[in-house]
Fold:
Amino acid sequence: MSESIEQRFINSAKSKTFRNIVNNFGLGKKTVLDIGCSYGELLAHFGKGSVGVTISQDEADYGKAKGLDVRYGNIESDAFILNEKFDVIYANNLFEHLLSPHQFLIRIKKYLKPGGILILGVPCIPKMVSLLRFKKFRGSLALAHINFFTRETLIRTVEKAGWKPTAVRGFHFLNMLVDLFLNPIYPHFYMVAFPDPNFQYSEKRLKELAGYADKI
Structure:
């Protein structure tokens, strides 16, 4: 078991897409909150003071044993609180599993430093839907997922929660034009966004959301 976990640490270091993101945003020198961090395999590539969160106690314990700041908790729970703020919030392969993606996007803003960004990695249904015939492009339809997105619906979801997207691309290539050209076939996108300073949530809508939360 531990060998397969260690292989995940090795694979993360080899991932071209992950390296592109780290280099593009200078994550090696920034504090990053990695939500849904699993065993913390990405934390070693982020700056000092970075923190990972997982809903598995075993994963948290494993990460801590490797000297990583991996914490056990459910980011969707009101009981979970972090005292720190971060330069970057990173969440990959998490959004599609959340009970309330909208509430998640609202909640995590308090953990971001002024000028900070969100990097949200989400499997999406490709624009060329005929590609769904091939296994490589069907990741967004996995049985474990409870939310399903296209690139366009992902953008709208993030905007409706008060974020301003600055990039939505695969990051397979550092050259943005090449990356954007391939957008129609990408099965996985990384949304880069920052809090919209002009976003206002109507008081009526806040009360509706509070009432909904009381029922679940």
